[in-house]
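[agent] plan:
  1. take the single chain provided in the ticket
  2. run structure prediction with default settings
  3. attach structure tokens to the ticket
  4. add a short note for the reviewer (M.T.)
[agent] executing step 1
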Amino acid sequence: LGRIAQGDIEKAVLARATRHDTGTRVDPITLFEGLREQQPDTCQFLVQPSPACAFLGASPEFLYRRVGRHVLSEALAGTRRRGSTPERDGALAGELLASGKDRREQEIVRLHLLKHLEPHCGHVQAPAEPDLRSVPMMHHLLTTVEGMLHEHVHDAALLAALHPTPAVCGTSTAAALELLRASESFDRGLYAGPVGCFGRNESEVAVAIRSALVRDEAVHVFAGAGIVAGSDPEAEWQETTLKMQAFEKLLSAPHAS
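[agent] step 2 finished; step 3 output follows
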């Protein structure tokens, strides 16, 4: 917050990791199946380079979808927990939509996507006002940004232009990266990176958040929160705790291992 007040950066997305030692080898497929049931309407992914190691998650955020030359990206930021009743849930959603702090945080991402897609597109458009994306346990602010790519713009160019967005890093990008490397006590690895499928005519790439790394008997769960002017440290910490609850519930279930 001091760096933000000084004008060095506008936003930084700080992440934390918790390690869960289960005492028995964790089957990533079983964990993944539980995640799929618990987190519908998200992008679920599993990457398993070896039998003893797997990275998996259920992300609410797409970096981009491309069909032919049409490309669509998503500015997702701002968080409120879901309410226990329809009335409370609606009140929390309204609170998020009315929050100046959360709207600033999300607007930074929207402007980043517009700026970095424009050089690759003949036309880019996005609504001025955010909408809601509601997933199990959380509400988020969402804006879709879409355009028509110039000829011969390939997925490698889109990845280089868009990643990392201010939703997982901050802005300005270079200054935020420097702060994250100095502040975070762990290597993010695949966390918050792009994950997806690429084809000649169609590609779909998500941002690997709400994720965990499985190594034998240990599960490392990751979560981050966007820090901007007006952020409250305790509230941001609680937000990351909320984002970790999906994995924590699965790991505490009898069939988790």
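[agent] step 4 note for reviewer: The longest strand covers residues 70-81.
[agent] ticket updated
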